[in-house]
C-alpha cells in the first residue's frame, strides 16, 4: 500500500524552513501532499492563489510532492479523502512542541488510524517563521536567504505594487 502523508499548513508565505521539512518528509513517504489552507482570514498576507502558485513552483523539483488547496474541514477528514494515513508537521522549539502535541493528540482522538509524524526543524532554519519574515520585509530587511525563489519574487512584486 502506498504511504501517503498530508502536510497541512497556512504557508503565509512558504519559507525555506517549510521547504526543508517538505524535502526531508518527501523521503519518508511514497507521496507527500501539501495542503495549503483555504483561509478566509482577511489577515492572510498572500492570497490563496498566490500561495498555491508559489508553493507549487517551490516544490516542483520534488517528484513525489503535490499541492492541494485544503478545504475548510477537519484535517483528518481531508487526509482520509486523500488516502493519507500520516500527517506531517515540524517543530522549531518548545513553543511549537506544545502546540503540535495538542494538535497531534486531538487528531489521534478524532482518528486513531492517522499517525502524526513530526520532524525537528533544521538548525539552519529553526529561527525562521512566516510572521517574523513578513515583519522584516515590511521594513525592507533582507530575507532572501529564507524564502524559496518563487516566494521571494512574488513578494517583491507586491512591494512594487505597494510603492507605485
Ligand atoms: P499553521 O498555521 O498550521 O501552524 P504554518 O505555515 O505556520 O501553519 O506551519 C506549518 C508547519 O510547519 C507547522 O508544523 C510548523 O511548526 C512548521 N514550521 C514552520 N516554520 C518552520 C521552520 N522554519 N522549520 C520547520 N518547520 C516549520
Q: What portion of the residues fall into strands of 2 or more residues?
A: 15-25%
Give every kind of bound small molecule, once each: adenosine-5'-diphosphate
Q: How many strands, what sense, and barrel or not for the largest sheet?
A: 5 strands, parallel
Which second-level CATH architecture applies?
3-Layer(aba) Sandwich
Would you kindly provide a brief summary of this structure?
Its cofactor is Mg(2+). The protein is an alpha/beta fold and 164 residues long. The chain has helices at 16-26, 48-58, 75-82, 94-110, 130-138, 149-163, and strands spanning 4-9, 31-37, 65-70, 86-91, 115-120.
Helix and strand topology:
Blueprint: E1 4-9, H1 16-26, E2 31-37, H2 48-58, E3 65-70, H3 75-82, E4 86-91, H4 94-110, E5 115-120, H5 130-138, H6 149-163
Parallel strand pairs: 1-2, 1-4, 2-3, 4-5
The structure holds adenosine-5'-diphosphate (ADP).
Walk me through this protein's architecture.
Helices cover 43% and strands 19% of the residues. The chain has a single domain, classed as HUPs (Rossmann fold), CATH 3.40.50.620. Helix 2 runs antiparallel to helix 6. The mean pLDDT is 94. It is an alpha/beta fold and 164 residues long. The protein is built from 6 helices and 5 strands, in the order βαβαβαβαβαα. The chain is globular, with a radius of gyration of 16 Å. A 5-stranded parallel β-sheet has the order 3-2-1-4-5, sandwiched between helices. Helix 2 links the parallel strand 2 and strand 3. Its main location: cytoplasm. It holds the Pfam family CTP_transf_like.
Amino acid at each position: 500500500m502506498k504511504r501517503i502523508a498530508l502536510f497541512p499548513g497556512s504557508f503565509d508565505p512558504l519559507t525555506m524552513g517549510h521547504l526543508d521539512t517538505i524535502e526531508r518528509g518527501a523521503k519518508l513517504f511514497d507521496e507527500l501532499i501539501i495542503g495549503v489552507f483555504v483561509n478566509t482570514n482577511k489577515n492572510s498576507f498572500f492570497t490563496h492563489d498566490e500561495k498555491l502558485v508559489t508553493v507549487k513552483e517551490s516544490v516542483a523539483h520534488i517528484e513525489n510532492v503535490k499541492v492541494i488547496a485544503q478545504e475548510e474541514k477537519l484535517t483528518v477528514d481531508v487526509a482520509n479523502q486523500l488516502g493519507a494515513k500520516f500527517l506531517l508537521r515540524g517543530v522549531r522549539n518548545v513553543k511549537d512542541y506544545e502546540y503540535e502535541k495538542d494538535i497531534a493528540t486531538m487528531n489521534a482522538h478524532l482518528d486513531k488510524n492517522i499517525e502524526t509524524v513530526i520532524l525537528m526543524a533544521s538548525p539552519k532554519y529553526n529561527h525562521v517563521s512566516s510572521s517574523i519574515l513578513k515583519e522584516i520585509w515590511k521594513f525592507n530587511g533582507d530575507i532572501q536567504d529564507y524564502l524559496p525563489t518563487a516566494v521571494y519574487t512574488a513578494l517583491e512584486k507586491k512591494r512594487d505594487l505597494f510603492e507605485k
